[in-house]
Specification:
The radius of gyration is 22 Å and the shape is globular. The N and C termini lie close together (12 Å). With 491 residues, the protein is an alpha/beta fold. A hairpin with a 2-residue loop joins strand 12 and strand 13. The chain contains 17 helices and 20 strands. The protein folds into 2 domains: 173 residues, FAD/NAD(P)-binding domain; 265 residues, Polyamine Oxidase, Chain A, domain 2. It is 35% helix and 20% strand. A 7-stranded mixed sheet has the order 8-7-16-17-18-15-19. It has a 5-stranded parallel sheet with strand order 10-2-1-14-20. A 3-stranded antiparallel sheet has the order 5-9-6. The structure holds flavin-adenine dinucleotide. The site of flavin-adenine dinucleotide has 36 residues, from helix 1, strand 15, helix 15 and helix 17.
Length: 491
């Protein structure tokens, strides 16, 4: 319990804003959350298209322990948050009819890679072993602590990790690291794909990020009971139970300050006074829109953004036995796909991801039907004419899926809605529709991300996918944890 309870305003009810509300109320602070939308969750939302339900954004759930921690903080049993571990993490498809199941069981996965991808026996286990080693050495440093506090760097665990720097492949890129472990191009492609988990490019991102597969295969991939949106509903319930007040349809227009100290927020024509303000909105817009007296730091303006997405939400009037919850249909030329993305283009044969939550949550689609969340990575650009690009890409995606699945998918679509980078920006205030804020394409990306506290204004903190430690649900939850710790340390 805090010895100095604060009155805290949180801007945004994204997953990090809500998690911060649970943590700060548990520490004894009084918390108000202001959300511009009429619903919670930001990028992690849901919608209905006739009889079909879709999780609108995130579909892959890893590291459930960070949600369980919130249950424990709110005095509930960890087991009250229900989820299941996926025995098959992902179904992979290639244009040449190769099909592979990524089993959660490491031995089975390795055997499958050996049989199907013609990889060396043990190659997949070696790649996962490398990922685990990197996570064990520096995962805690990069993900669970503020990189911008001296105390982080004087910790003995960190000093030990720094001595092991040569083992971290920081000066190679992810693709080079993966290639050094196997001759199988398809296995390399499968591991390179993990760069997209934070919207990065495996041919540019530091080899350090080859730890990402450990999140999915080491800690496991999960599905929350009821679907991804349950995560938001449950964290919201915990926050409200703890006494946090969530104000929907309340867009914050300014963060108020007096000299170097935050004094509150402005919502419409109302000035509301708080000791502490936590911004969960995109950090670019926090500076550009809410802090008129502070110049946006150059690093926030110039950092390359992560990729965005084009999503087709299709109600499909048949079922596909060969598909699972997560399905990837790879591009033939992965390097060309990432090169095109960095040139603000989309190739004719993009990698397609299909998520079907009705496989595990049957009520998400009518009987005999499936809800397909069909997504490709696209540039974060506003310079693309989406009204021209979307019909072109839609045709390419349908042609690819129909060819590989040997069924005319087009004729099975009975409902459709589409989300593009413009919609992602409009719905969630994500600058340029980037899914994860800035990309992690340079060695120093982690250090260039906004710290979880403001260096220019006392009492201002930042959480969410656009600040340290980065995007994705687990990292957003960790940003809330770091912020809650910083607020109590500052007392
Ligand atoms: C299509 C897509 C697929 C993804 N896939 C995955 C995945 O599979 N797994 C995974 O872990 N992650 C995935 N992500 C990333 C993940 O969704 C995000 O990193 C995470 O949800 C971001 O949460 P956040 O806390 O930063 O808040 P956000 O979701 O960014 O929400 C911010 C909130 O702030 C509100 N807001 C903004 N401005 C104001 C204002 N002025 N006043 C009041 N409120 C304001 C917004 O309305 C919004 O509700 C995906 C994202 C997308 C879009």
């Amino acid at each position: 319990m805090s010895s100095n309870p604060q009155k805290v305003a949180i801007i945004g009810a994204g997953v990090a804003g809500l998690a911060a509300a649970v943590r700060l109320t548990a520490q004894g602070h009084t918390v108000d959350v202001f959300e511009a939308n009429s619903y919670p969750g930001g990028k992690l939302s849901e919608w209905y298209e006739g009889p079909y339900r879709f999780d609108a954004g995130p579909s892959l759930f890893t590291m459930p322990q960070y949600v369980q921690e919130l249950f424990a903080l709110a005095g509930e049993g960890e087991a009250d948050f229900q989820f299941e571990r996926l025995p098959v993490v992902c179904h992979y498809f290639w244009n040449d009819d190769t099909r592979l199941k990524a089993f959660a069981d490491a031995k089975k996965f390795d055997e499958e890679c050996y049989q199907v991808l013609d990889s060396e026996m043990g190659a997949e286990e070696r790649l996962l072993g490398e990922a685990r080693k990197k996570y064990d050495l520096v995962g805690q440093l990069f993900l669970e602590s503020s990189l911008h506090k001296l105390s982080t760097w004087t910790n003995t665990h960190v000093l030990k990790a720094i001595r092991k720097l040569p083992q971290l492949d920081v000066f190679s890129n992810m693709h080079q690291v993966h290639k050094s472990h196997t001759q199988s191009d398809k296995l390399v492609q499968l591991f390179d794909r993990f760069a997209t988990y934070n919207g990065s490019n495996p041919y540019k991102a530091s080899g350090l990020l080859s730890m990402i597969p450990h999140f999915e295969h080491g800690f496991g991939a999960y599905f929350p009971k009821g679907g991804m949106y349950t995560i938001v509903k449950e964290i919201l319930r915990l926050a409200e139970k703890q006494g946090a007040k969530i104000h929907f349809n309340r867009k914050v227009d300014e963060i108020l300050q007096d000299g170097r100290k935050v004094t509150g927020i402005q919502v419409g024509d109302q000035k509301l006074y708080y000791d502490t303000v936590v911004s969960n909105m995109d950090v670019f817009f926090t500076y550009e829109k809410l802090l008129p007296e502070i110049e946006t730091p150059n690093k926030i303006l110039t950092q390359e953004r992560s990729t965005s997405a084009l999503i087709f939400y299709w109600g499909i009037k048949e079922t596909f036995e060969e598909l699972g919850l997560h399905n990837i249909f790879f591009a033939d030329n992965y390097q060309k796909e990432f090169q095109a993305l960095s040139e603000q283009k989309i190739i004719d044969d993009p990698t397609v991801y299909v998520n079907i939550s009705s496989k595990l949550n049957p009520s998400d689609a009518p009987q005999g039907c499936e809800n397909w969340f069909t997504m490709i990575n696209v540039p974060y650009s506003h310079s693309i004419d989406w009204d021209i690009e979307i019909p072109r890409i839609r045709e390419k995606v349908l042609e690819k899926l129909s060819r590989i699945l040997k069924r005319d998918v087009r004729s099975l679509i009975e409902s459709e809605s589409i989300l593009d980078p413009r919609g992602i920006e409009a719905k969630t205030s994500a600058y340029l529709g980037a899914l994860y804020g800035s990309s992690s394409n340079t060695l120093f990306s982690a250090f260039l991300r906004q710290a979880n506290f403001s260096q220019s204004l006392n009492g201002l903190y930042f959480c969410g996918g656009t600040v340290h430690p980065g995007g994705g649900i687990p990292l957003c939850l960790l940003s809330a944890k770091i912020v809650a710790e910083l607020i109590d340390e500052a007392e």
